[in-house]
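>> Question from a student workshop board

For tomorrow's exercise we were told to take the sequence and the ligand below, predict the bound structure, and bring the output to class. My setup keeps failing. Could a helper post the expected result so I can at least see what it should look like? The ligand is magnesium ion.
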Amino acid sequence: MTHYEIKSSKELRAGMGEGLVEAGKRNVNVVALSADVKGSVKMDGFAKEFPERFIQCGIAEANMVGIAAGLSLCGKVPFIGGFAEFVTGRVYDQIRQVMAYSNKNVKICGSHAGISLGEDGATHQTMEDIALMKVLPNMTVLVPADFNQAKAATLAAAEHVGPVYLRLGRSKMPCFLPEGEKFEIGKAQLLNEGKDVTLFACGHLVWEALQAAEALEKEGVSTEVINIHTIKPLDVKAIVASAKKTGAVVTCEEHLINGGLGDSVAQTLAMHCPTPMEYVAVDDKFGESGTPDEMLTNYHLRAADIIEKVHTVLKRK
Amino acid sequence: MKTTAELQQIATQVRRDILRMTTNAKSGHPGGSLGTADWFVAMNFNLMDFDPAKFSMSGEGEDMLFVSQGHITPVIYSTMARRGFFPVDELKTFRKFGTRLQGHPSTAHNLPGIRMASGSLGQGLSVGVGAALGKKMTGDKHIVYTMHGDGELEEGQIWEAAMFAGAKKVDNLIATIDYNNQQIDATVDEVMTLGDLKAKFESFLWKVVVIENGNDMQQVLDGMAKAKALTGQGSPVCVILTTKMGYGVDFMQDTNKYHGSVLSADDLPKALAQLPETLGDF
Ligand SMILES: Cc1ncc(C[n+]2csc(CCOP(=O)(O)OP(=O)(O)O)c2C)c(N)n1
Ligand SMILES: [Mg+2]
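>> Workshop helper replied:
Here is what the output should look like for this input. Compare the format with yours to find the bug.
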């Protein structure tokens, strides 16, 4: 088993913040906009480095989406930053009309996504954002797995032409992927080869999937782990090839069971190679207050939960 | 009815609660909570007509309050507990796993006193307008109150609701703005100046009452009484409540630092020393 180690514990939103400064250095057209949360979403580094390219929009996310779309007409590459719920769900129609349907080069950075946000509670813990964004034609949806990948994904988003949603968590999470690795939009990342079962994971759950795989290997279950950091466009080829090889699949995500990574994989398998599959995701319910750790544990998003689902799916093989 | 002095004593205890709750939770929003404590105490104990023991979702036969800037749960929950909605001891569960006292107000945990989730800024005025219209339709003479942050006014939906309420003469509605000139990234003036806020509301066909010092209990009582006297005259009423974010603790005032960050366990006693325990801590 390829062994991964926690090199540090860092916030993915901070990875985006570093990536954005770097993108700003590489391309003078990169601009950033935030809705009174530039510090919270880690756009303050960019605002400091390029004050004339940072636009404070105030607490007005809908207006911010429109302004960004307008800026994109003039050759700018706008990154808009906010809490994930308020820059997706709250402004869904604005995104749909002026970013997705009009196909504009605007990037959404959604911080504080998922249940690991913790104490703020359900009002702020979006677990629907992947569903909302992936369903929009033209939209690219990126869910990096750690700080380093969040940084790389930000740079990739800046180079990609077209609307992008970048999903980021608030809390410190294990940083285990190499620094400076190129992020290839739409290309699944094989983290461990196996032959009995495949774990397709995204975001914070990639680390849990690797932990699960280590334990499963000790039990004698050869476990393939693939990081689906791009939910859309989905790497159908890689998913089908792995499912055909192992014949059993578990998807792992910090999102509602409806409309997330699991559903994208299920759709792919149904069309190309029906395979027994289980979901590790949040049941059809809202979150609540608690520490990030308590959230992941109580909403069954841990390595132990993945292992349990693997045992279930292996019986269905 | 409490005397002004009694209300001040309650407000001091509420400020202690706010600080102890947020430090205990290691998260939450003490700044705006401290600034609006006097208003919440005045509303809960003297100004609003309701009975905590008979809380109903419909609020029939009662005044209703919707706090639109849901992040100030510390002051919301402390005043609710002190007013008898639930045991004061429960304040220690604020933001902890399994609590009814969620980080932002929630109806999913059956906490009496809460009728609508809030925390996504800018939505509470619309809800208040709807409840006020509902009261008119059912012949209930009671008043609907809403509370908003001044930064929150940057949300467009606020102005959709303001336009509606003015045009449709929703005159059983009193919206109070916590005019502290602070939000997360900077002052409101720096982020998005409000210009002449009174004139803005008046041009939307509202009547406006300005409370110059919203941290002076007597001014709050008088100003809100004036607002109440203006209801029923064909216009919604806006109260511009000038406050200081962090009021009550000298080193927490005149900054937005404590909008969403809490005192460490080490700094807490320094703050509490400025706020004598009046009703007993939770
Ligand atoms: C729709 C939405 N956007 C952003 C936020 C994040 N946020 C929480 S409080 C706040 C600032 C609010 O300022 P103000 O209304 O003046 O309240 P105060 O800080 O004075 O308590 C922001 C931007 C949010 N809760 N909802
Ligand atoms: Mg304010």
